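Weekly structure sync, notes
Attendees: PL (lead), two postdocs, one rotation student
Agenda item 3: pending single-chain targets
PL asked that the sequence for the first pending target be pasted directly into the notes so everyone works from the same version. It is reproduced below exactly as submitted, 386 residues in total.
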Amino acid sequence: METLALLEKLVAFPSVSAESNLAIATFCRDHLSDLGFSCRLVPDATGKKANLIASLGPSSGDGLVLSGHMDVVPVEGQVWTSDPFRLTQRDGRVHGRGATDMKGFLASALAVAEKASRLKLARPLHIALSHDEEIGCVGVRGLLDDLAANGFRAAVALVGEPTGMHPVIGHKGKLAARATCRGVPGHSSLAPLFLNAIHLACEVVGAIRDVQARLVENGRRDTAYAVPYSTTHAGIIRGGDALNVVATEATVDFEIRHLAEDDARILFEEIVSLAQTRIASLVEGFPDTGVDFAIRNAYPGLATAENSPALAFVRDILPEAPAFKVSFGTEAGLYVEKLALPTVVIGPGDMAQGHQPDEFITLDQLAACDAFLEQAVQKLASDGSV
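Predicted structure, written out during the meeting:
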């Protein structure tokens, strides 16, 4: 089946992260199994989601991994000119939810799998597909833990997020956290006699800003990024029940977007320490009050070296393609962290189109990805050099 036909089928699955992905995972498994791949679904704890690992060729540990995610972001609140879950072609583009992020790459990988099945591979080809990437690289962790436990090895991984078919060797990591502030309620006419949880939240935000100011002044720098240092950001504040009641609880959701070389947990602990210092005088005399901090999600950054075998593999096919770094996160850092697997991000499309109404990918980008993956598979079939 050709890439465009496969993309049409993939887009038709409304595989938003909030829903089960078993239908699309089963479709991909059956497609690859019919081609002779050894396939295995790796379910999550609920049994409603599953990752997929599929392998073709010898059982040596020096193969190639093509990696992608099956989930997409929701379409609620967006105005589309066509059905987002029906692939629509116009003006050299195909529109549909996930066309760019990242079912275009998935379709190309499934198409090249058919070509690989007709070759005698000297090195194995693996296709690894995850669930729930869009909500913090959640699903792939279970897949990689499973692979590590089973002694999985490979030489190179290519994560197919949209990069315009240029190799990406770096991106920042992310840590998301919540501060829960506990105060003492009372009527606002007597506000000074109580402890306002919103005031505690303000001190948390102050601590977040203090850490950001330090990073701006003397934090580590990487000028390959638009913002060359690690950043902190308070994204959501909730608190209070009524204007005339001193708030008993408030929460602050915040994140750290960090250079791969920076330790996000150290930055998190710096925020916690500064916040506790800031609130010390406020909570004095009010037992059972204060601020509790919890990390809700985290994934590592990516820092692939210029001499990495993964980049060498890509440049053997695309010698003129410059390597660069991107602002968005991917699962690539987890492949490095959990499997020590040299990894590059490369895939068709432009992330600027991802998550948008009328999301699209150009036919030229799909063709470029097809050509690249066909050469990658041919390398496995010739001398197996990766």
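Discussion points:
- The two ends are 27 Å apart (CA to CA).
- The longest helix spans residues 197-218.
Action: rotation student to compare against the earlier draft before next sync.
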